[in-house]
Design goal:
By secondary structure, the protein is an alpha/beta fold. About 45% of the residues lie in helices and about 10% in strands. The chain is globular, with a radius of gyration of 21 Å. The protein starts with a helix and ends in a 14-residue tail after the last helix.
Length: about 350
């Protein structure tokens, strides 16, 4: 593609910010156009013809899109934000496997953290004290043994997962003088130039200090809207061969991530902290809440029991997780659930 670097950045930003286009459609446009201005000249009817489908209730102004893309590209340059383009050699291989991968993944920090052995850790924002400790300890041990920890920088479990990995990084540096522990990857539900929640800015700085990375599919300035949290979850699940739930009520975002993990043919494991007395009490309250709302909803929320029935195993800690993933699929699940349950999970890439 004969295009200078400045125009190229504006072009891929212009494409990445179009929410109504699929990954395949963005890739097709990328291969058939040569500039952001060429994209701006396309009408909605042109885009419909190009993609072969109708975009109902979609508002499109190519010039407006370009105006914002130019501004966002300047922020990317001025703040030295990196980007990984789908199809390029440095795009994370596990993420590339998914059909709905981001066209562009923006990052701040050490992109090498996206290529090493990793585990995704998810759970409740309102984590109980046992769940908080179990999450921190799990992530600390994983990072101490050189594994990267992927999570979403949210309050609760996410924050504890990142803290455990960051503390392991600082402790290893104190002992060896090198940042030799595993890193942590924070997937943001907002533009790459911000941190959400703002109370985790210090934690985000620790992630970068210890060699980790912040990533987002969203351009600078994009707010943390509700739908972006769900979209963010698919990236968390995709970046690791195994997703671990440390504590989560029924119907929570963590269990949406669990669904994504299974969709992507990843391993799914629950930490025993999910079944502590305090965690069970929270889950009971959530079930009662869901029952009271059931009359207004046709969709049944996901539950931990559903995944256990499918064969998802339960681990005590990180060491136990490694043992589980070295066993034949289903052997550990049979110990935690009924023998007649079918294991639908796949061998780990861990």
């Amino acid at each position: 593609m004969d295009i200078n670097q400045e125009d190229f950045l504006e072009f891929i930003v212009s494409l990445s910010r179009i929410s109504f286009l699929s990954l395949a459609e963005k890739v097709k446009l990328y291969k058939n156009l040569d500039s952001a201005r060429g994209l701006a000249l396309m009408s909605l009817q042109d885009l419909e013809k190009f993609s072969g489908r109708s975009f109902k209730r979609v508002k499109w102004d190519g010039n407006e899109n370009l105006k914002f893309a130019v501004r966002e590209a300047e922020t990317i340059r001025s703040k030295q934000i990196g980007y990984l383009l789908y199809g390029e050699a440095d795009y994370p291989a596990l993420l590339k496997e998914t059909v709905n991968a981001p066209f562009v993944l923006y990052y701040r920090g050490n992109k090498k953290a996206l290529y090493s052995a990793s585990v995704s850790v998810v759970g409740s924002r309102r984590v109980t004290p046992p769940g908080k400790k179990a999450t921190f300890d799990f992530a600390y041990t994983a990072a101490s043994q050189g594994f990267n920890v992927v999570s979403g920088l949210a309050l609760g479990v996410d924050g504890e997962a990142h803290r455990g990995a960051v503390e392991a990084g600082f402790d290893r540096f104190d002992k060896t003088g090198e940042w030799s522990a595993g890193k942590t990857v924070a997937v943001l539900p907002c533009g790459i130039d911000a941190v959400f929640p703002a109370s985790h800015k210090k934690l985000a700085a620790g992630i970068l200090k210890t060699g980790g990375v912040l990533v987002s599919e969203y351009v600078p300035g994009a707010p943390a809207e509700k739908f972006r949290f769900v979209q963010r979850n698919r990236i968390i699940a995709a970046l690791s061969p195994v997703t671990v739930v440390t504590e989560a009520p029924d119907g929570s975002g963590a269990l949406i991530t669990a669904d994504y993990a299974l969709d992507y043919n990843r391993d799914l494991v629950f930490l025993s902290s999910c079944f502590s007395e305090s965690a069970e009490a929270v889950r009971r309250l959530e079930r009662e809440k869901q029952k009271s709302l059931a009359v207004n909803s046709k969709k049944n929320p996901s539950s931990i029991e559903k995944y256990l029935e499918m064969g998802a195993p339960v681990a005590e800690n990180f060491e136990d997780l490694k043992k589980i993933l070295s066993e034949a699929p289903g052997s550990r699940a049979a110990k935690n659930t009924r023998d007649d349950k079918k294991d639908n999970l796949q061998p780990s890439l861990f």
